[in-house]
Design a protein that fits this description.
With about 190 residues, the protein is of the alpha/beta class. It is about 35% helix and about 15% strand. The chain has helices at about 5-15, 40-50, 65-75, 120-130, 165-185; strands at about 25-30, 55-65, 80-85, 95-100, 145-150.
Amino acid sequence: MPEHRGGPERAALRAKDGDRGAARVLVAGIGNIFLSDDGFGVEVARRLAASALPEGVTVGDFGIRGIHLAFEILDGAYDEVVIVDAYAHGAAPGTIVVFEPDAERTIGDPTADGHSLDPASVLRFVRRFVSAGGPERAILRECPRIVVVGCEPETIDEGVGLSDAVAAAVDEAVQMVRGEISVGSAAL
């Protein structure tokens, strides 16, 4: 799990406001390694964590702990969050898609069950607290840029290890995440 930044450290990060240097980016690998291709995000995070990354980038294996990811985002330490996950979108297994989730679709009741927050529920949970009670009562003034790098799974049956098609897509996903880090840093 990524290093937790709270209290004085978080206040210092926010105090810098316009002069913060490198963008702060969280890459969050999510998924269940015991459900075959659902472990895609975890594998991509593992590979990224073992490589050299730009300053300000934190990689975390959040597995199935969606509530931890939600609170990590709400901590306010990041300008951008890249979520990596298996994502069924009707393409051939191993096909990668990159998108920014539609804010309108992720607003609503997150039904916060800490044991079963899927990525959409995490985003609803975060956005609920960003806007809760107006700007003066919000936990965060604004939501960080959120990007999803998803891979079409072949199977999410019980089993450890990725299918051949999804395993072959991991390196491509690593490069796409690196590209998103660069794009997000330039936009911030």
